[in-house]
Amino acid sequence: MQYKNRMNSVIKLALVLLAVAIALGILYRVGSQALIVFGKMNRQIQMVEYGTMEERLTAQAAVLNHEEIFLAREAGRFENMAKDKEKVGKGTLLGYFITNEGKSIVRAAEAGVFVRTTDGLEEVFANLDLAGVTSEVFQYKPTPTFLEKPVQIGQPIYKIVDGLMPTRLLLKMSADASEIEIQPGQKLAIVGEGEDWGRGRVVELQKESGDLMMMVQLDSFCEKSINKRFIKVDAVLDSRTGFLVSAQAIVARDGKQGVYCAVGKFTEFKPVEIIKQKDDIVLVDGLDKNDFIVTNPTARI
Questions:
Q1: Which range is least confidently modeled, 36-45, 47-56, 110-119, 259-268?
Q2: Angle at the Cα of 70 from the Cα atoms of 65 and 76, rounded to 5 degrees
Q3: What spatial distance separates the first Cα and last Cα of the chain, rounded to whole Å?
Q4: Contacts by 94-102, CB closer than 8 A, 24 or more apart
Q5: Using CB atoms within 10 A of its CB, is residue 56 exposed (0-12), middle (13-18) or buried (19+)?
Q6: What mean pLDDT do residues 38-59 have?
Q7: In whole angstroms, what is the distance from residue 28 CA to residue 257 CA?
Q8: At residue 271, does pLDDT exceed 90?
Q9: Fewer Cβ within 10 Å of end Cβ, the chain: N or C?
């Protein structure tokens, strides 16, 4: 009887332990599923964005076009017939120079872009050598001509800008404005006053009194530079396009980098190629424009 009672007690204990184990298993599975459902209910979803990531530096720029000014041979007033910024050929009628003795015809001595006004800095920036330049050149003040005012002997009356020669720019920026390493020959794009001025390359550079001075030559003549001397520009040194996603959306799975995309109630892992990262934004390839990215992925989704 004692043996039988002990056996019953052992069986009861075993059954109780089995019941507890089963109950814990059920609770674990229910809890796990609940966490998954809760995670899906609270997941943050955002439609993927296609865009550009750039390395952009802001700089002061001095415009260096090939310009030739023409001076008055006698006192008088120039009355132009050609329009300002008009392309003219050699021998084109530009206007008349009026003096007390009458008026004489003025024709273009060479082909180019006719510019009615001068700023007094044409000769200063002609054939500029970066080795002899200081940041003081950006303190020079242009002295525009007055169109309706009579001129004296030796004063400028107009200039011709060579539209076949590439535009050059002298850029000045703080040497510690960026950690981007810049080398001669580096390609870049110039944006002036919000407009595209074209692409070019760094011809040479030097550091002077805490400033970084760069000579940039555009690939061609920039018409937007006419009548510009000092201007604020953005130098775009690197520009990549792709899909922009938050860095926290990138996860590793099976040795691959990727993101979770929401597909209805479910999620799908998509491997991506990381092109570039800036702060907490990552530029990637491998997604589609209609993908919805889970921006707060967890190990269970």
A1: 36-45
A2: 145
A3: 57
A4: 94/158, 97/72, 97/157, 99/74, 99/75, 100/76
A5: middle
A6: 77
A7: 30
A8: yes
A9: N
The answer to whether 147 touches 227, Cβ cutoff 8 Å, is no
% of residues, the chain, pLDDT over 70: 84
Pair 93, 105: CB distance under 8 Å? yes
* Residue 94 identity: L
Q: What ranges do the domains of the chain cover?
A: 1-42, 66-164
Sign of the CA dihedral running 72, 108, 147, 113: negative
Q: Is the dihedral of CA 140, 198, 180, 279 positive or negative?
A: positive
Cα 239 from Cα 277, distance rounded (Å): 12
pLDDT by residue (tens digit) across 180-201? 778 899 999 999 988 999 999 9
Strand partners, 51: 242
145-162 pLDDT, tens digit each: 877 788 899 999 999 999
- Residue 95 near residue 80, CB atoms below 8 Å: yes
77 within 8 A of 261, measured Cβ to Cβ: no
List Cβ<8 Å contacts ≥24 apart for 147-151: 147/116, 147/117, 148/77, 149/77, 150/75, 150/76, 150/77, 151/72, 151/75, 151/76, 151/77, 151/78
Q: Residue 44: how many CA atoms within 13 Å on its side-chain side? A: 8
Q: CA distances (Å), 202 to each of 57, 143, 265, in order? A: 13, 29, 52
Contacts with 155 (C-beta within 8 Å, 6 or more apart), sequence order: 71, 72, 145
Q: Please give the share of the chain, as a percent, with pLDDT higher than 90.
A: 51
Model pTM above 0.90 = no
CATH 1.10.10.10 matches 66-164: no
